[in-house]
Amino acid sequence: MWVPRGTLGNDMNRQLTLLFAAFEALLVVAIGIAIPLVPLTLLWGIHYGLAIDWTVFWRTAVDIWLVGHGADITVVLDPAVASSVGLAAASTPVTITMALLGFALLTLLLGVRAGRRVAETSHVLLGTLASLATFGLASLVLTLSALHPVARPSLWQGTLLPTLVFALGLLIGSQIVSASNPVSGGIRRWISGWPAHVRTIVSTSLRGGAIAAAGLFAVASLITTAAIVTSFADIITLYEGLHTEVLGGVAVTIGQLALLPNVVIWAASWLVGPGFAIGTGSAVSPLATTLGPVPAIPLLGALPGGDFAFGFVGLLAPIVVGFLVAAVLGPRIAGELRRRELAIVALGIGVTAAVIVGGLAWASAGSAGPGRLVDVGPQPWIVAAWAALEFSVAAGLGLLAAARPERADDGFTER
Questions:
Q1: Each residue of 132-180: pLDDT tens digit?
Q2: Angle between helices 316-333 and 380-402 (to 10 degrees)
């Protein structure tokens, strides 16, 4: 059968694109699993002398990776084991719902890289779909391999949630959302049909809210760094109290790095006002700190130990960030919008920032274990409500400061 040369070449390019996209997805999964699996395997060989079934460590690594993407895992300790370690109540099922967001962040960044690389091929849409399907299939296989009566991950969450994180990275990194794509091109044409002032309101609200949320998390990162540096002695003391050897210390450090994005989000919740909890009945906020027994995690040594005399100053962070963002964006839109439309923009900035901050607060919170640890992290709805109020008011003040009074020579006219 005669096949045109162009068709044969196109089929070969399509097959190469499929293989390349699948390899990129498998590479992202392999890197994420290897981070907990390598130290656990070394621990299995060096500390336990290969005496334990290696599949225990494999399931543990997969469970850690799945938890890192938000998949729930139901843990049931053997009654004898639970009693021997003084956790008799731990023999009842406990569902771990708090995500170690460091793994999700890694998957997102690697997904962006994969999206960029797939976008360089001649079949972008096909390659992206192949990469996404491969990642979803790999997540399903990994979740199935980790099913065990002692620790059982949610099958649908283990398959779907990591794939959604990877899909977001692919969309950011690829050129599927470019103007040349039929779907995005249609969306752009639809948006171009809106009135000019509506496009300005929507675009400024989304852009301003995203920048304001990013600014808040930047401040939270600086505060987290300062807290770790100033509490370094307490953190080292907690490390020494764990009595771990080198490999155990490495494993603990990797776990804390995976927890670090959660801590930054908790710090942002602290700046917004409601704060967060480390166990039922506890509270860490700018105005007061009430801590009961906390897990022996060295990173938690950076938590404040009492009330701050000037803790309320932290509440200025979202106000200042929201004001500065609006003040920068204000001059660009003041000549296009009425004063009441500027108020809508301020509200839109506040709502957009609140959705981002509240969504990440929701992802960072949940159950981390039995007993008091069923309640760890911020209350997302309360954090979102506070953030919406603070950013909206601050953005409104910033837009008013940027909008000059009506003058014939500045081009601003009240409509």
A1: 999 999 999 999 999 998 889 999 999 999 999 999 999 888 766 554 5
A2: 40
Q: At what angle do helices 101-119 and 124-146 cross, to 10 degrees?
A: 150
Using only the alpha carbons of the chain, give its radius of gyration: 25
Amino acid occupying residue 366: G
Give, rounded to a whole angstrom, the gap between the first and last alpha carbons of the chain.
Answer: 72
Domain endpoint, select from 162, 188, 214:
188
Q: Which domain holds residue 202?
A: 194-402
Q: Report if residue 409 sits inside a domain.
A: no
Q: With contact defined as beta carbons under 8 Å apart, do 212 and 202 qualify?
A: no
> Can you give the pLDDT at residue 87?
53
pTM here is 0.86
Confidence of residue 4 (pLDDT cuts 50, 70, 90): very low
Q: Is residue 414 a part of any domain in this protein? A: no
Q: Burial of 212 by CB count in 10 Å (0-12 exposed, 13-18 middle, 19+ buried)?
A: buried
Whether residue 349 is contained in a domain is answered as yes
Q: Are the C-beta atoms of 366 and 67 separated by less than 8 Å?
A: no
Per-residue model confidence as pLDDT tens digits over 179-201: 455 555 556 666 666 677 778 88
Query: Could you tell me if residue 223 is inside a domain?
Result: yes
Q: Report the range out of 14-18, 45-49, 163-167 with the highest average pLDDT.
A: 163-167
